[in-house]
Specification:
Oligomer: single chain
Structural class: alpha+beta
Strand content: 15-25%
Low-confidence stretches: none
Number of strands: 2
Mean pLDDT: 89
Shape: elongated
Number of helices: 2
Helix content: 10-25%
């Protein structure tokens, strides 16, 4: 996946100075900037907490 990302200009995209949202960052882990914000969103656990959602924002 990293080769494909490089082919489409992924490096220029993430270094553009803007905000970039990457849905599956684990597929391009080695191409991500060292300093970044990571956002993790978990949906509800329908068995135990049907309306709960979790949002985690972490700076690396």
């Amino acid at each position: 996946h990293e080769g494909e990302a490089t082919d489409i200009g992924f490096d220029e995209y993430v270094q553009s100075g803007g905000i970039c949202f990457i849905e599956w960052p684990e597929r391009v882990q080695n191409l991500l900037p060292a300093e970044r914000y990571e956002i993790h969103l978990d949906g509800p656990d329908y068995a135990n907490r049907p309306t709960a959602r979790t949002l985690l924002i972490r700076r690396t």
